[in-house]
Specification:
The chain has 198 residues and is α+β, with helices and mostly antiparallel strands. It contains 6 helices and 8 strands, in the order ααααβββαβββββα. A hairpin with a 2-residue loop joins β6 (146-157) and β7. The chain is globular. The two termini are 36 Å apart.
Length: 198
């Protein structure tokens, strides 16, 4: 399947997911006005409505990281081996994952203090010799401390994954695990600012 086809399918799925059930069958508790707005095509939602404060989202971790590592300032994670221990009842969701060499792990950095989460600008890696950047232009602390890491999948064993190169400390809640698909996830033509080129 081509990358463009995958993108098309994902865009279609995303639009369906973002619409309430009441859009499809006319049921639910949305008032008529709210239903009209919520069920409108995503590209026709007025900017003010799209930017309004949304209700909180509750996520249940699917598992936890186990590796005995506790130093959040560690620099080299490339050889660290970790287990991702899934919560009860999710083992069958791993069917077929063992055929991939790498996975994308999405986690919640639960030890990021509130004062860092509220910060809007920072120097990259705290280095004031580099240009000041917005929090969303960096890979550090942010309003929602979500981590996304690609790491090597070494083994799937029941409800546990053994991975290598996962840069998360022991006890970190895991929100999701996805297979890394090179033709879709890799972007060879991606560019980055001069300061980030090393």
């Amino acid at each position: 399947m081509s990358r463009n086809r995958v993108r098309s399918l994902r865009a279609s799925d995303a639009e369906d997911i973002m619409r309430p059930k009441s859009c499809a069958d006319g049921t639910g508790s949305l008032a008529d006005g709210a239903r009209s707005a919520a069920c409108a095509p995503l590209d026709t939602i007025p900017p003010k409505m799209a930017a309004m404060e949304m209700p909180p989202i509750t996520l249940d971790p699917i598992g936890v990281v186990a590796n005995g590592e506790h130093d959040v300032a560690r620099v080299d994670w490339s050889r660290v081996r970790s287990e991702i221990r899934l919560r009860e009842g999710l083992a069958e969701a791993l069917l077929g994952l063992e055929d991939y060499s790498h996975v994308i792990v999405v986690a919640w950095l639960d030890r990021i203090p509130d004062e860092l989460r509220s910060r809007r600008r920072a120097y990259p890696s705290g280095d004031e010799r580099l240009p000041l950047q917005g929090a969303l232009a960096l890979r550090g602390a942010r309003p929602n401390p979500i981590a996304v890491t690609v790491c090597r999948l070494r083994k799937v064993d029941g409800d546990r994954l053994e991975v290598e190169g996962l840069d998360l400390v022991d006890g970190t809640p895991v929100l999701d695990v996805k297979p890394y698909i090179a033709f879709y996830d890799a972007v060879p033509e991606a560019t980055l600012p001069r300061w980030a080129r090393g």
